[in-house]
Every structure is written in structure tokens, then in C-alpha cells.
Amino acid sequence: MNGAEVVYRASYPHPATGNEMFEIQSRARALDNNFYVVAPNLGTYYLFPEETTPIDTFGGRSFIINYKGQIVGRQEYGGGSTYVAGVIDIEALRDHCARAQWDNWLKDLRTELYQILYEQPIYPKNLYLKREPMKHAEYRQKVIKRQIRLMHDRGIWKKPER
Predict the structure, then answer these.
(1) Predicted structure pTM score
(2) Domains plus CATH for the chain?
């Protein structure tokens, strides 16, 4: 991450927030990379300007996570606009990276092991540079299935027997 110290994690839809995927992934990335993660999630919103009833498809659960993967700020759910607060101590992070012997992971990475995976792109770049976002079925067909096929074709993933 080129020395990033605070990273924004975009919102994540329900049910991934309710089954803790959003929290687990955010905490793991903060710990893996020794940086803070600011992970606000959406609450309720209106589909159209004329709507009178809001919907909730994101499930709340906003976090600020420190470089050790610990939650230092949490907002479970507010049913509307809320905020989350927590301490972000950049100097403590820098001290940790400079002095920790075991859990400042980036110094121990064997990056050459990732070369096979990253030598060619998997996810298409600039997907919506010149077009509107795809509907779910089109995205599944043109992007998701293609990505999975690439992972199998390149021998990164093994196809299931069934």
C-alpha cells in the first residue's frame, strides 16, 4: 500500500455486514498492513427523491480500526445519519512499525511469491469509464464469471470436481 497510514474502506451491503464479513475483512486488512481503516457504512436511504419511506440494505456497522486490528470506534446502527469516532494516533503507528519485532508484517513479506498472481490483471480496469454501471445479471456474466475463469485458467484456483 506504499506506506499508507489511514485507508478508507467503502461501504458494504447487507448481509455481508450482518454476518460480520465487513468487520472481519476490515480488521484483517488493518492488521495485515499495519494501518488504520476507516470503514463507514450506509444506514437507511431513499431510492428516489420523491420517496417517503427509507430502505436499509447496508445494515450499518461502521468502524474505525487501528493498525493492530482492534476496533477503536464502532457504530452498530442508527436508523439514519450517524457518525463514528475513534482515536487515530499516527505517531503510535509509526513507532509500532519502527520497533515491533513480530507483528509489523510488511517487513516480513516474501513478495516474489505473489508475482504469479499479480503479473497479469484479473479485475478489468476503468470498467465504467465510458459506460453506465452494469445490472447484476450483466455484471455476473461479463465480469464475475470471467474473473473466476481467469483464476482457473491461470492455475491459481482449482476447479471443483462436481
Answers:
(1) 0.79
(2) 6-109 (3.60.110.10), 115-153 (no CATH)
